[in-house]
Design goal:
Helix content is 47%, strand content 10%. It contains 27 helices and 22 strands. The chain has a seven-stranded parallel β-sheet with strand order 3-2-1-4-5-6-7, sandwiched between helices. A six-stranded parallel β-sheet has the order 10-9-8-11-12-13, sandwiched between helices. A three-stranded antiparallel β-sheet has the order 20-21-22. Strand 1, helix 1 and strand 2 form a beta-alpha-beta unit.
Length: 756
């Protein structure tokens, strides 16, 4: 079997690197393992590829904060002879917010893989939980090292137990040496050594042991507390050796400075084993329970050390059945009593050592390596199973149920509130006609979909808002404060156009005549302003509204003239800016780009204009050339936009841009019946659900809102009206297209928790 390992790796000094090297060595003992074809993909903390002098088995290096490296690493593995992969996961090792860049790697990877979780958080934040769920969904198996981790994954992360494999932390396959150099050293000679090892930081609780020393030393002056290990690099960077110095000061203040020794170095496993077999008691005094796996504790048990520990999660399991003793967090008095008891009673001490040693025999790396190999073989077997027949392009059953609860939360008796902090409406920001026009469009689509009654109840709120914002001359204001004061004299052309779109759509699809007549009155009063539009997006939105209007008033010569005039402006802009392979309406792509070809498709449909159709299809083909790199939608980022003949800036990505792409491809499919546009539409929609450059969903399944945008290493967790409406308009457009694909749906698409 040929295996790729993705992890940190020696000479980088960290527990994960040591674990990974031990796993490589353990698997190499198996006859079926092909060491010459297997390799390691190592993680560097810095931007330098030469940060560490790696051994020859490291064939590729990922720089932690370089997202492109993750994609190239996946391609490197995909193009190799590797059969399967092992990914070691720990928060802080991978780049992006909470290590989100790892998702770029696993979604690019075409080989089956298992993931070893070294930390499972009891209270993960949104990003942490989402990342672990995505890893679990893509992994052939999730490996954890404790029963508590299994419980957390099933209860907190909703990962099925069948997807999880419990494999305890491996330990070195070493026996105590008769000639132990550490035992013979000047440091240990004639002393009963209490021992702790690992990277030093404040959460290790070393001061608890020092505080316990005075009463112990009073009875046993030969006791020496040895702390082995460097200070954690992150601690050194920010605080230097402040913590280590504070421990020395504490020992001096307590009069036990001669009973404590620091060995400030990173030791080999052989040397560490000598320390563990030479010490009298091993202590892990961590300060809280949130330690799901402790490699140091596993090593101590594997070496047959007598262990005393605070009751963090891993210690509770590993030291059960009299394999060690527990004391309460920060309780130096209780610790002192336990240590004195064991120092005074050699039988109890030896019993702990023997129980630990016997249990540790099952944890040795050769045995653990065999379990990993069996797990990998199972992953390969599952990967070879025949795949199910190709599903329809739109798999409706996998879409979230339509749930307008967050829309209702954002909507009061005035209108829909612009912004939210996380999922909570931000009343300070007030309202805008942009969002209320979108909300009206969404409500009309929901009504068309399944006569949604919640949407019907929301419609008059949005209509009333639009009427309140219309000026006496028929134009529209945009912004309104929470206390209903106007904040502008006249809105932008964009907001004007979106309002016309919503009113035109209302006239063509209203649930009753009252709403239709009300909408037509507002629409008619605004017509005089069509001729004043100067900007392409305002024109495009207005064209779409006019097309909806003309779908039910086909003989209105005045408005046919208006839509033709506006469409001609778009066509002239296209002719002016088209250049070689640049098939676009401007010399830059900015925001809401897909609205421009979408408007020409609507114009062509409303009037039969062949040139509008040709230009629309030509510019759609241009969008396709850069929008779907790596198999998912990459909408134009707003960090500098996409200049003529330039590259698409990936971030920040906005939901409104994705909505426009969904609507564009939905309309193109409706007109052409070409399945490729159905596929483009669905891929664009899946951007909301996690098929994006970070592989993180923007749609929140808990709140039923949508995050405001995708940033270079995270999502903007605010869930305002624009992004949430963009999601639901896209969702409803996909459902409408699905009806065309399926003709009749296999199950009714009704709103979850729908009220009458």
């Amino acid at each position: 079997m040929k295996i790729a390992y993705i992890s940190t790796y020696p000479p980088r000094e960290c527990g994960l690197a040591t674990f990974n090297q031990n796993l490589v060595n353990a698997l190499s003992l198996n006859p079926s393992y092909e060491a010459s074809e297997s390799f390691v993909v190592a993680l560097n903390e810095s931007e330098s590829l030469d940060e560490h002098a790696y051994p020859q088995e490291v064939k590729f290096v990922i720089r932690q904060q370089n997202q492109q490296d993750y994609i190239e690493a996946a391609d490197f593995i995909n193009n190799s002879q590797i059969d399967t992969c092992i990914i070691e996961h720990e928060f802080g090792i991978y780049g992006g917010n909470s290590g989100v860049f790892l998702l770029s790697f696993i979604n690019r990877l075409k080989k089956p893989f298992i993931t070893v979780l070294h930390t499972v958080l009891k209270e993960p934040n949104f990003m942490q939980q989402t990342i672990i769920k995505e890893i679990a969904a893509k992994s052939s198996k999730i490996v954890v090292m404790s029963k508590k981790a299994v419980l957390f994954l099933t209860s907190i992360y909703q990962i099925p137990k069948t997807a999880i494999k419990l494999i305890e932390h491996g330990v070195p396959d070493l026996e105590p040496l008769m000639d132990n150099e550490v035992s013979r050293s000047e440091l240990f000679k004639g002393r009963k050594v209490l021992f702790t090892f690992g990277l030093i930081s404040r959460n290790k609780g070393l001061e608890t042991v020092i505080k316990a020393l005075p009463s112990i030393v009073q009875q046993h002056p030969e006791v020496l507390y040895v702390i082995l290990g460097n200070t954690h690099p992150g601690v050194v960077r920010h605080n230097g050796e402040e913590y280590r110095d504070s421990l020395k000061t504490l020992a001096k203040d307590l009069g036990v400075e001669k009973n404590i020794a620091f060995v400030n170095k990173f030791v080999s496993e052989d040397e560490l084993h000598q320390y563990l077999t030479a010490c009298y008691l091993y202590i892990t005094p961590y300060l809280n329970e949130a330690q799901i796996t402790s490699g140091t504790l596993s090593y101590a048990v594997g070496a047959g050390a007598a262990v005393v520990s605070t009751p963090y999660w891993h210690a509770q399991e590993l030291l059960a059945d009299d394999r060690g003793r527990l004391f309460d967090f920060k309780n130096d008095k209780q610790l002192a009593e336990i240590l004195k008891e064991l120092l005074n009673d050699e039988q109890k001490h030896l019993k702990l050592k023997n129980n630990a040693y016997q249990y540790g025999l099952n944890l040795r790396w050769p045995q653990i390596g065999n379990v990993y190999l069996e797990t990998l073989e199972s992953a390969l077997t599952d990967d070879r199973k025949p795949k199910r027949s190709i599903p329809p392009i739109i798999d409706v059953e996998r879409m979230p149920a339509l749930n307008l609860n967050h829309i209702s939360l954002l909507t009061d008796d005035t209108g829909i509130i612009q912004h939210a902090r996380f999922g909570i409406p931000n009343l300070k920001e007030g309202y805008c006609i942009d969002d209320n026009a979108r909300a009206l469009i969404m409500a009309l689509m929901a009504y068309e979909q399944d006569k949604n009654q919640k949407a019907v109840k929301l419609m008059p709120v949005y209509l009333s808002f639009i009427q309140y914002m219309q000026c006496e001359d028929g134009n529209f204001r945009n912004f309104l404060s929470f206390n209903r004061n106007y904040l502008d004299e006249v809105g932008s052309e964009d907001s004007f156009g979106r309002t016309i779109w919503s009113l035109g759509y209302l006239i063509s699809a209203a649930p009753n005549n009252s709403y239709r007549e009300f909408g037509r009155e507002l629409f008619s009063h605004s017509i005089m302003h069509f001729k004043d539009l100067k900007y392409l997006r305002g024109m495009a939105n207005t064209i779409i509204g006019l097309a909806h209007y003309l779908s039910v008033h086909r003989g209105d010569e005045l408005l046919i003239g208006e839509i033709n005039r506006l469409a001609n402006s778009l066509k002239e802009a296209y002719a002016k800016n088209k250049d070689g392979e640049w098939h676009w309406y401007e010399d830059i792509l900015t925001y809401d780009n897909a609205i421009l070809p979408l408007a020409l498709l609507y114009h062509s449909e409303a009037t039969g204009d062949v040139e509008s159709y040709r230009i629309a299809m030509e510019s759609i083909a241009f969008l396709n050339t850069f929008s779907f790199e790596n198999g998912y939608l990459n909408p134009v980022g707003n960090a500098g936009w996409m200049k003529k003949h330039g590259k698409n800036p990936i971030y920040d990505q906005q939901a409104i841009e994705t909505m426009a792409m969904v609507l564009l491809y939905a309309k193109t499919f409706e007109i052409t019946k070409d399945d490729q546009y159905l596929s483009f539409m669905h891929t664009s929609y899946e951007w909301f659900l996690g098929n994006n450059s970070l592989h993180i969903p923007l749609y929140d399944f808990e709140t039923n809102g949508c995050a405001d945008g995708l940033q270079f290493n995270s999502v903007n967790r605010n869930q305002g009206a624009e992004s949430t409406l963009a999601y639901f308009i896209s969702h409803l457009a996909v459902l409408k297209a699905a009806e065309s694909e399926y003709q009749t749906l296999s199950s009714p698409l009704v709103e979850q928790g729908k009220v009458s």
